Structures are given as C-alpha cells and as structure tokens.
UniProtKB/TrEMBL annotation, chain A:
SMART domains: AAA (SM00382). Residues 5-241, 257-501 form the ABC transporter domain. The lineage of its organism: Bacteria, Pseudomonadati, Pseudomonadota, Gammaproteobacteria, Pseudomonadales. Keywords: ATP-binding, Nucleotide-binding. This is Nucleoside ABC transporter ATP-binding protein. InterPro entries: AAA+_ATPase, ABC_carbohydrate_import_ATPase, ABC_transporter-like_ATP-bd, ABC_transporter-like_CS, P-loop_NTPase. PANTHER family: CARBOHYDRATE TRANSPORT ATP-BINDING PROTEIN MG119-RELATED, GUANOSINE IMPORT ATP-BINDING PROTEIN NUPO. The keyword Cell wall biogenesis/degradation does not apply. SUPFAM superfamilies: P-loop containing nucleoside triphosphate hydrolases. One of its GO terms (molecular function) is ATP binding.
TrEMBL record, chain B:
This is Nucleoside ABC transporter membrane protein. It comes from Pseudomonas kuykendallii. InterPro entries: ABC_transp_permease. GO terms for cellular component: plasma membrane. The keyword Transmembrane applies. It is a multi-pass membrane protein.
Length: 502, 308
C-alpha cells in the first residue's frame, strides 16, 4: 500500500519543554495505524502537527510522498486530513448541521440552501456508515458519544481521507467504543488512512493493522500488533526497567489516614471514583500509579479538601472524617498539600513570594492579629525558608511568585507546606514539568518527610517517579485501586495492571 | 394629545443612536471581543462627521466619515486585544479616555466647537405621516428610515448567512472555529472594525443630525448606555432595538415633562436606563439562564498553540 501521510524528524517544544524530539511516523492508505503511548508521550502534539494546528520546529510532512507545508487547519483540510480531537471542537449552541457546515469548503447558493444540503449530506453519510443522528438537533443536547459522531461526520464530510482520532474511546462505554472502532476500521477498508491515538492495548490488538509506540516525545518502534505480545507493547510504552535509586526501606508506623469505599456520585452510569480503599501509614510513601484520567485528580481533590462530591469514608487518625476539616484545621493537623496545578491552586502568582509563603499561617495569627500583618516577620521567615529549601531565582522575597520558574515555584510550595513538620503529605504530580535536578530535589523532600515519620501519598502519572519513591504502590484504573505492589515492585507487572483494567 | 404626539415624534431621534451603537457592539461581541469603548467611538464618529460637514456640507458624506473615523480608531483597539491579547476590559476603557481627550483637543484646536450646521430635512412618509397621533413618527430624517434596513441587514448577516455563522462560531468557540479552518483573528478584526463603524455612525448621527454642532464630550454617556443595552438585550439585535426605543422614549420624555411643568430630577431620568439594566441582569442571574445568550468566548483572547 502506498504511503498516505509521513512525518519525519519532527521536533516541537512548549515553553522550553521538549514535547517532541525527532519523531517520525508513517501511515499508509487503507490501514488503521495505532499511535500508542503513555500520557505526555507526545502523541497528541504529533497529531496536532499533522492537523496543522501546531507548527513543527524541525521535520517534514509528506502527503502521498510529496512534501507539504501546513499553515493551519484549513491547509490540512485541503490535503484531506481531518482530526477528531480528544476534547471535541464543537460549537455547543449550534445545530449539528451548522457545526458541520462550518468545516465544509465554500460553495455557492444561499445559506439556507447550503444548510439544507448539509443536512441531506449528514443523513446520507450517517446512513452509509451506520450512525443515527438528527442534523437539526443542538449539539449541547447530544450525549458525548453522539457529539463524537458529529465530529467524525464533520471530518468525513469535509472530505478527509486521512483520519486522525485522538483517544476516541476514552469517553465512550465499551460497547460504544467497539462500535466506533469497527466503523472506523470499515472506513480504512474502503481506502482511507486512519490514525488511532490511544493508550489502550486491547484496542490496538483488535483493531490496528500497525502500531507505532511513542515514549518521551520520540517514536520508538513501529510493529505489527499481531506479531507482538501485550507484555512487549507495555515494555515499549513504559520503557526499560531502571534500577530504582537506593533508599532505605522504611519502618512503617500505624495507619494515619484510612480511605474506605470512596465513591463519586454516579453520572451516566459511571462513577469517576468507584470504591477506593487505601490506608496511609506514617513513615511510608504510598504511590498511586495509573494512566491519567482514571480518577487521580478527583481523588487528589477529595483528599486535599477541594470541592468534589464523594461518599464513603476518609478517616484521619485522631480527628474523624477528613472532609469536615476546613483549611485552618488542616493546617493545624499538619496536612501538607502539593496540588498538581501549582500556579492555579498552590500559589497566587500576582502576590509576592513572602505573601505566598506566609499565607498559610496568617489566619492562625502567626503574623499578627487580624488588623495587623507583621510583614517584617513574614519576610524574615520566608527568607530563611527560601534558603533552607534552596528556592533559586529569588532576588527579593517581595518579588512576584509568578516570576519563579516551575521548579522553584514548586520548592516554594514545599517550603510553605513543610514549614510545620507535616504529619501527612498529599502530593499530586509533584515533579511534572520540572527538570531532572529540580525533580530530584522535590523527591528528596518527600523522602525526608517520610523519614521523619510523615505519611506521604504520591499520586503520579510518571511511573518512574512512583517506582523510585514509593514503598507501596497502588495502581489506579477506572476509579479503583486495582492492584497493590510492595517495594521493590516489578515495573512490567505494574504497567500491565495499569492497562489491563482499562 | 398634542403632548403625546410630539413626544412620539421625538422618540426616533433619541432611539436611533442607541440602536445603531448597540447593533455595532453586538456585531463585535458576537465574534467574542468585548467592546467597552463605545463612548470613545461615538465621539470619534461625531467629531469626524462634524469636520466633514463643516468642510463639505454633505450630510451623507459626513456620516460616512464618522463611520470611517471610528473604524480607524478601532484598529488600535483591535491590534491591542486581538494581536497583543491585552485585557479587553482595560483596552476598552483606555480607548474611551483616549478618544475623549483626543476629540476634545482636536475640536478646540480646529475651532469646530459650537459651530452650528444644517442637518438633514425631515422626510414625511406619506400617507403614514398623515395618521393621527403617530403621524409625527413618520416625519424623520432619512437616516432614521435607513436604520431599519441596516438592522435587517445585520440580523440577516448574523443569522442567515454562512459568514455570519462563522463569525458566531468564532465568538462561541474559537478553538472549534480554528479547527474548522476559519481564520479566527481575521474574523475578529473585521467584526471589531465593522461594529465600530456602526457605533461611529451613531456618533455621527448625534452630532450632525441630532445636536447639529460639536460640543466636547457631547456623547454624554450614551456609549455606556449602549454597552448596558447589549447586556440588557442578551446580544439579540431585535431586543436591543426594543431597548433602544424604550430608552429613547425615556429620554424624549425629559423635555416633554419639563414643558408640561412636571418637575422630575434630570439625573433621575438619566439614571433609569442603568437601573433597568441592573434589574435585567439580576433577573437573568436569578433565572440561571445567563449562559445561553452570552457568546461563549466573550472577552477571551485566542491563541492557537496554548497548552492547558
């Protein structure tokens, strides 16, 4: 089969973070080609380049073996490339037909005639590929699965022959997902080139003709999924086992925080958190591994006291239900929280470093009564903490926190949260986006907290991080802890547990 | 009875600037650009039209000059908020103060202040103009009548044309519009300029056809009322027209009441449009339906390669 779309030597970075380096990928006419990788492996970035949304820094794009430059999605559409994004690009208040008309090439006739013609085309195409959809309905009133069908019809009717589907089954139930993938397979059999971006091994095995594995912004290998075992695919996606850095096995103390049967309310037959059981013991790091989007963020929200509906038990030793504690009580209970969104939740970028540091204890009266803020004291203590926690790039503690780089911002968060000997540390992706050195510094802090007897919960999508730090590892999938491992844990076994239950 | 008739006859003169300005703002804001600079654009349109009128004495040309001046000034605003992604509220407010200062300065320097001009004669629409009571409604200048087709045209464009669909898509969900191959920034730029031209036309109307002279800051807060009117009308042109007529009625009432000897504080009457707008906003918020009318991306700058 001839090549449809080829990307060679593509690199791309965002704010200094290298999302893609020297990635290459080829899809042929008539095949379903899966692009497999963990979250953050660069799959979506690479496909956004193919769809003309991002401009690559280096590398070439070839269509039918001819070099092409895409200046935008309109160019991509002209080259018959269509992408169904993970987060749908639909105008919610518009009807199905209006949404699809937006993406169609300009044609003659009145708007009303065109709209009617579009409605006819939708009905015809939907019939042809076995979708049922009412073109006059408003998109906001459609279910997620229906909205996805609209997206697919949109790219097909715009004339796409190279079809990119970004995590199409992530939002669907199993049956819906299977129906969708067989439809898509049918399109490939009729000659289209289909790229299936996914992290689900099962979908790859069942529906893909070839698979390219991505890891850390690089394309690792292209294989025939029938010739390779799931275990080998897992090994390729998560990487070779690295020896974990040596750190002494801890002596766990009693359970400080016990979570029993933690559930989110049911929405559309699914629960984001679906019965979490775990217990955090003093002097131990409990790592939660898993593919992103399996309820980790929601779990972190519940535990950190952010608004998140839940039922079940979260018992804190010597206190009771943790959810009834307000932020002041949490501070008094010495619960440290390191949220994933450090600029959104942990720091107020427009305030100074000293203010960000002191804010945790302003309420408790450490910096004076309510009518007086002892700024001098706050600044002195911040200065001391900045030095102790090695926060770099601080010329003056009065400068804005937003000016700190990611790593130093995170160190500032830790300096504040650890300023009162934490008993419990809740950390969500604490080293995401940090360079190796800053990440290592964060890890040292977590280990030090553990060694001084704190119970540490580490939620991370970075398996290396979890393997390196955690004494026990729980694998989270579809809102449950599906497997637990003791240190030293087998990387392959964890990787398999991560994907098997999806 | 006479009082009522002359009151009705004065309503269009007050309502037309509101209607045109609100329509222009709706056009801009439907593309997702929050335009708070209406007060400044009114003044830009007013000054340019007065200058043209003094030089050439052709009202049609003066109105066009007002539109062009406002569109020109809005390029500055568009570059700030669309290209440089400056906060749209701040850029809009800045535009107002800039225009207030600049038009006052130019008006004085060029000695255009208080020079009376001839506007347009009233045209009687026979036989409607002979009707009892409402007859005076049809003794208006040409621009009042033209407002109706302008409204029809813009409404047609927004709701019945493919280009209007694209413009609304840009205002609702620029990511989706971009993915569909619509040039988001170009649409926004055009929407700002076209909408501002309509606001400029409103300013020219006030200066050349209504007040018939240039006075510094002569827009007198009408731009702000137009901003409020757009919110009041939930970004719907027809509701904005209704609101403009309502506010026109209130404003036309002031001289009538004074003539009839009713003493009502002038500021009370001037406050009414804002009070009504506040009331409508509270009513909408209580109803919890505010999300279905406001353009989804209003006030949000768009940049393609932003990672979240």
């Amino acid at each position: 089969m001839p090549n449809a779309l080829q990307l060679t030597g593509v690199s791309k970075s965002f704010d200094g973070f290298k999302a893609l380096s020297d990635a290459s990928f080829t899809v042929k006419w008539g095949e379903v080609h899966a692009l497999l990788g963990e979250n953050g492996a660069g799959k979506s970035s690479l496909m956004n380049i193919a769809a003309g949304l991002y401009a690559p820094e280096t590398g070439e794009l070839l269509i039918d073996d001819n070099k092409v430059q895409l200046k935008g999605p309109a160019d991509a559409a002209r080259e018959r490339i269509g992408m169904v994004h993970q987060h749908f690009k639909l105008v919610k208040p518009f009807s199905v037909a209006e949404n699809i008309l937006l993406g169609l090439p300009r044609s003659d006739g009145s708007h009303r005639k065109r709209l009617r013609e579009t409605e006819r085309l939708i009905a015809e195409k939907a019939e042809q590929i076995g979708f049922s959809i009412d073109p006059k309905k408003t998109v906001a009133d459609l279910s997620i699965a229906e909205q996805q069908r609209v997206e697919i019809l949109k790219v097909l009717l715009a004339g796409a022959k190279i079809l990119i589907l970004d995590e199409p089954t992530a939002v669907l139930t199993d049956q819906e997902g299977e129906r969708l993938l067989s439809t898509v397979q049918g399109l490939a059999r009729q000659g289209a080139a289909v790229i299936l971006v996914t992290h689900r091994m099962a979908d790859v095995k069942r529906f893909a003709d070839r698979v390219t594995v991505m890891r850390g912004g690089r394309t690792v290998e292209t294989l025939d999924p029938q010739q390779v075992s799931i275990a080998d695919l897992v090994k390729l996606t998560v990487g070779e086992s690295l020896p974990a850095p040596a750190h002494a096995r801890s002596e766990p103390g009693p359970a400080l925080l016990s979570v029993r049967g933690l559930k989110s309310p049911e929405i559309g037959g699914r629960r984001i958190l679906d019965g979490i059981d775990l217990s955090l013991r003093g002097g131990e790091i409990y790592g939660i591994a898993g593919v992103g989007g399996n309820g980790q963020s929601e779990l972190a929200n519940v535990l950190m006291g952010l608004p998140e509906p839940s039922e079940g038990e979260i018992a804190l030793e010597g206190f009771g239900d943790l959810r009834t504690a307000d932020m002041d009580q949490r501070r008094d209970l010495r619960i440290a929280a390191i949220p994933a969104d450090r600029y959104g939740l942990a720091l107020a970028g427009g305030l100074s470093i000293a203010e960000n540091f002191a804010i945790g204890q302003v309420h408790s009266g450490r910096y004076g009564p309510f009518w007086l803020l002892r700024e001098g004291r706050a600044r002195e203590e911040t200065q001391a903490a900045v030095e102790r926690f090695d926060v770099q790039g601080v010329r003056n503690v009065r400068q804005k926190a937003a000016l700190l780089s990611g790593g130093n911002a995170q160190k500032l968060v830790i300096a504040r949260e650890f300023s009162r000997e934490p008993r419990i540390v809740l950390a969500h992706s604490p080293s995401r986006g940090l360079d190796v050195r800053a990440g290592a510094a964060v890890h040292q802090r977590l280990l030090a907290a553990r060694d001084s007897g704190a119970a540490v919960l580490l939620i991370s999508e970075d398996l290396d991080e979890v393997l390196a730090l955690a004494d026990r590892i729980g694998v989270m999938s579809a809102g449950k802890i599906v497997a637990e491992f003791e240190r030293p844990a087998d990387r392959q076994a964890i990787g398999k547990a991560m994907v098997d239950h999806v | 009875m006479d009082l009522l008739a002359s009151w009705l006859g004065n309503v269009p003169d007050f309502a037309v600037p509101y209607a045109l300005a609100a329509l222009g703002l709706i056009l801009t804001e439907r593309a997702g650009v929050l335009s708070l600079g209406a007060e400044g654009l009114l003044l830009a349109g007013a000054l340019a039209s007065i200058g043209t009128q003094l030089a050439f004495g052709v009202a049609g040309l003066s109105l066009l000059a007002g539109m062009a001046a406002a569109a020109l000034v809005s390029i500055l605003f568009a570059v700030m908020v669309i290209v440089l992604r400056v906060n749209q509220v701040i850029a809009g407010l800045t535009l107002v103060f800039f225009c207030q200062g600049l038009t006052s300065l130019l008006g004085t320097l060029l000695e255009w202040t208080n020079q009376p001009i001839r506007g347009l004669p009233a045209l009687a629409l026979w036989p409607l103009s002979e009707l009892p009571l409402v007859g005076k409604l049809f003794h208006q200048n040409l621009m009042v009548y033209l407002t109706v087709p302008i409204f029809l045209g813009v409404v047609w464009y927004l709701n019945r044309s493919t280009s209007g669909l694209r413009l609304r898509a840009v205002g609702e969900n620029p990511q989706a519009a971009d993915a569909a191959g619509i040039p988001v920034l170009a649409y926004r730029f055009a929407a700002v300029m076209a909408g501002s031209a309509l606001v400029g036309l409103a300013g020219a109307y006030i200066a050349v056809l209504s007040t018939k002279m240039w006075i510094a800051d002569m827009s007198g807060g009408r731009g702000w009322i137009a901003v409020a009117l757009v919110i009041f009308a939930r970004w719907s042109p027809w509701k904005a027209l209704a609101g403009a007529v309502l506010f026109g009625c209130i404003e036309a009432l002031i001289p009538q009441l004074a003539a009839a000897g009713v003493r009502l504080p002038q500021y009370f009457v001037l406050m009414t449009p804002y009070a009504v707008t506040l009331g409508v906003m509270i009513w909408v918020a209580l109803g919890g339906r505010q999300n279905n009318a406001q353009p989804g991306a209003l006030g949000e700058p768009y940049v393609r390669e932003e990672r979240r």
